């Protein structure tokens, strides 16, 4: 059983060297990773730390127990009414009296009508995707209508609540928030670049930044922007390809940010140690992405993997913020607390209000200000570390 006192014991720890940027309770881990032992100047941190740790470990346990209790694959997919409707729609191209032009295929898969260029395989693929999407959408509406008559509440279909389309966009609110997140990530990424290369001093020998984590954060920005791009695409058009691209990008971002969290909180600067930390996470994330794409897109399993990776890095940052003397640790606290609260929206998922705003859309809204604060922390960290390195040089 995971408990605050059995997990973190610092009381009897020997505090030797001083490094204010290291995590506590990780002496054994540091040894395993070949890192220097940690310590702290202030002895009063021990009692404060226990309180904070208890809070976070408790939150972690509560979130995980909720998670395993509530996560299931989408219930709507297995509804026999929905399945029968989908099968019929694929064959006939119609749901009740509504027929879709994208679904007009002959039995050998060729388009029934249209000029030759419209019968090219690529176009056919798009048509099949459109047909599947139309069938899924109208079968979902139909099943939901039937359920409403019976007085049962809405359920999810292929990982999503039944939404109303606007101009063919499936979840317009989530698309708008994803686009704003993408813009915010780009703003943060660019401003870090400007800060490092134009505002802070550069190493005279190679004109490179002093900040040892600049490369890691630049790549992080690329993963984040890629993830929000595919999120916007997926929320506007839900087909197998966009769904897999969105899920894979999100897993890749979470995996990469976990690596960055470990490297930064443990202050890992050596190339070999960095590779040693990154390799198992990369292997796990790659396997998981391959599993999702080529074996089974298991929503429940994916959610568990994502939340486990998300909570692990939140805990790392939280404990680090608790013990470090970083001047901008309040930003870190704000991001950690804000993200934890926002994660509740993903866990206590509720159906869309009026068919438009659901918990997931609100979760995308909350990450916009958090992203701004996050990049602001990264810029502060770059400045802090640069000034620290300059002091050491002098
Ligand atoms: Zn989303």
From TrEMBL:
The keyword Membrane applies. One of its GO terms (biological process) is GPI anchor biosynthetic process. The keyword Glycosyltransferase does not apply. It is found in: Endomembrane system; Golgi apparatus membrane. InterPro entries: Per1-like. The chain crosses the membrane at residues 54-73, 175-198, 210-233, 245-263, 275-295, 301-323, 330-348, 360-378. It comes from the Eukaryota. It is a multi-pass membrane protein. GO terms for molecular function: hydrolase activity, acting on ester bonds. Involved in the lipid remodeling steps of GPI-anchor maturation. PANTHER family: PER1-RELATED (PTHR13148), POST-GPI ATTACHMENT TO PROTEINS FACTOR 3 (PTHR13148:SF0). Belongs to the PGAP3 family. This is Post-GPI attachment to proteins factor 3. It comes from Coptis chinensis.
